[in-house]
Protein 1
Amino acid sequence: MTGQADSLLWLGKIVGVSFAGGVVGSISGLGGGIVIVPVLTIFLGIPIQDAIAASIVSVIAVSSGAGSVYVKDRITNVRIAMFLELSTAAGALFGAAVLTRWVNPQSLSILFGSILLLSLLPIIARIGEELPEGVHNDRLAAYLKLNGSYFDKRLNREVVYNVTGIPAAMGLMAAAGVISGLLGIGAGVVKVLAHEIAMKVPSKVSTATSNFMIGVTAAAAAGVYLKRGLVLPYLVVPVAVSVLGGAFIGTLLMERMSNAHVRQVFAAALAVIGVQMLLRGLGVRF
Amino acid sequence: MSTNHESSMTSAAAPGHGISVQDASAWILRVGVISSVVVMLAGLAVSFLRHHATIEHMQHAAFDASLPRLWQGLGELRGQSIIELGIYMLVLTPILRVVASMVLFLVEEHDWLYTTVTFFVLVLTLAGLLFLK
């Protein structure tokens, strides 16, 4: 039946595109949504609102799938994740419930693209640095008991780290939450940046902890989208499952990479995505 | 030493003494994701095989958040309802992990500060589904 063939072809395209997005999103710690939404809209012609809703659900799948690997290796810092999540989830509710009714996604696309490209600069400067040095717990971090340690497979030793810059991190996380809720992405980039730049936590910890947070924030935003009937079940299933598959593969690769490699992939993904977002926001079609 | 990572959130479980934190979290994530994916794919298969879902239908069918209708649809083995169940399961997975963290902060760590923090995170996360319009 032609009807069935069309349906399968449509599904096939979605699967292929989503799988690739999952791999990139997982390795760079971005959560997949940031790749999925542009590609679904631009290459498959799916209305942006539908792509955003599908993406936010798939972000949960990615975060949970990747997270189950991180948890086993004991890298996630649960206290950081929960404390910052207060700010992030609140932001997500605001973005999803309030802003989606008022703000033009194109404007946010431009803003987000600009921020991404700007934030490439500090990342590039620190590429190659294996672990942050000379970091002392600030008083807030010490009071909140946020410092931690983990066993690094590459370095083959226990790494102890301190945490600083909590207020800045909270601010960044609120922004991450709003972006998450509004654009349907994991905003992992902002979360990882908050960990690395503001709190000066090792890359692997920031990626793992951000991954935990991404899932929770996405769940908060998804709740709003589900309640409002904005989610398309037949789009969500192939997207979510394929992104998950790609993310799983990506996680296996990432565990074997050094902290410096993680950052490099992260920076490359940021560049591509930043440009994409800018172009989309400016209305450039290709 | 530091007690933030799930490995040291509680001392290694003594034999027969209950599971450690990271085991619980990993289990929730793994079971949650795998089961929700299985259900979603099953729903998709049912839609194809039983209802011969067309591309037009797939591109436009919207998620119906009404629980009574979901229950009814499941009873009728309606493909879309099965998919919707799977989606609910997926969304609940990180939420369950937060619940587990809260319980463990309370019961294992006796950390009132973080029990409260995690509780508020839970409220926020469920707000979209339960409270907002």
Note: Strands of chain A lie at 148-152, 157-161.
Protein 2
Amino acid sequence: MSLPLSRPMLRSARAKPWRVPWTLVVFLLLLPLPWIGSRYDTFLATQIVIDALFAVSLNLLLGTTGLVSFGHVAYFGVGAYVCGILMKTYGFSFAIAFPAAGLAAALFSLVFGYFCVRLTKIYFAMLTLAFSQIVWAICFKWDAVTGGDQGIADVPFPNMHWMSAIPGLDGLSENSRFYVLTLTLAAICIAAMAQITRSPFGRMLTAIRDNRERAAFIGLNVRAYELTVFVVAGGFAGFAGALYGIFTRGVFPDYVFWTQSAQVMIMTILGGMNFFWGPPVGALVLDWLNQEITNYTQYWPFVLGTILLVLLFALPGGVLGGLTRGYRAVQRRRSRLRTRDA
Amino acid sequence: MTISLIAAQFLSGLTTAMFLFLIASGLSLVFGVMRVLNFAHGSFYMIGAYMAWQVVTWVQPTGGAFWIAALAAGVSVAIFGGIIERLLLRHLYGVDELYQLLFTYALVLILGDAAKFTWGTDQLSVHRPPVLDGSFQWLGTTVPYYNLFIILLGPAIAIAGGLILSRSSAGRLLRAAAYDREMVGALGANVGALYTGMFVVSSFLAGLAGALITPIESVVPGMDVQIIVDAFIVVVIGGLGSFWGTFWGAMIYGQTLSFGILAFPQFSVFAVFALMAVVLIVRPWGLMGRPIR
């Protein structure tokens, strides 16, 4: 698998001696929120962080590899259910249930992905959708294990007493502690995904996105790469699902319905799928808008649909794409002015 | 398992199959010709159902209220579909298919809420047309006349559609466009009008199916996102873009669902999804479709 990268590419990748650790920066910026913000802010931020993790995992497929998965919510759901069942039904601790959720989701995506990567384009999208609906059907019907349409209510919070030992955290409420825990875990996951995207493996994925045939032609085992990233993305989606189930104190079949896959896809594209930090921006904008708008009207889907239309017709690069373009335009004008002055 | 039980399951499967065929055929034709996977097709079906209820309420005392309503629902949805295609969808041909998918999903969101806004969230129902009220006995099971009507209507539309596709000049053009639309355009055919026409016909079928289901199932919000997944499964089993494939796909779907309930009551939905997954794994282009590059 070790294909020689062209030398200039390698050098440019190594040339930067120091890179801004964006994940750490964002983590440190968001950490003080429980002290400075209201309970509501903390609540909203928890949701945004979980959604951001979920959307970043989708973008490994969508933006990085160019795989349109319309069933990514399946692995989110598997994670949520596995974590919920382990913690609620069997009384396992979070320290066991959380990794188990990611592992189970990765396992599911290995099995499903094995078949999905055989297909391309629209057929890939359809098969991922079909598999996610299979997961939904199981969750919806298998009363004995998943609770059927009632789902699993009252998933307990993880035991977070150990946080009291850390100075500064002992005064926090249970919800705030969960926020800190979520933020930490999500930051670790996102940092890992950033590393994957930057790695030679990630570069290969981008090569596959840009031209599948050529990537195969230079000797890349395209399917193996696609399956690997499918499993990785599924695993991280499982982590997001596990956190979400605890956050909403319950896991329900609605979480796995196919429209949820569309939802996270909108998030990713709204932020800008060509940017690593696009999906978190999308999660931020969409979750915040959702909270604001549902205060006024119950017709949130209508607003979301309208946002989506505007996005598709006016801002196809997403928020970050639009900002970058605007910034470049300003720079160009400035440099033009400067040359005129000189 | 008695004969009457088998007959009952078979007929209920057949009724489901014919509805699914009506809905999925439009979806399949649009995909075959325009390469657009239309999530909003289920929303068109839902709007058709609501329109039928609305028209029936308006013209209640009239004798043929139901038939007027069914036709009005089909036509209004067809016009609506045509407008959508002309004004919006048209601008998205040739862009990444992800954007087309999301466009039709945006329609799902908007139309779903528009329907809730207009007709509320209550369950609405429409009576069977008086002509088809009543039922008869067949192999020890009771068959409503309305179900028989649907079971006969399905193949009738299938044969008519098949004939139009294979014999008429418009049908020939459509089949040619399904093979190579750029070539058809280069040969001087008006591809734009063809697409609009295709979309209008497909919307009409969706609206009609929505209207015809109202005597059997009540009209509720959320029926759009439920039915579209079923229609996808039918189309995928039969072969995306294949007209007759859709017909047989619907038959297989209907019977699997209906007999699956007997075999494993809890997991009949699961059986259908599994069927779709198997078809996609073995023959990704469906039973009667052909591989698309």
Note: The two ends of chain B are 46 Å apart (CA to CA).
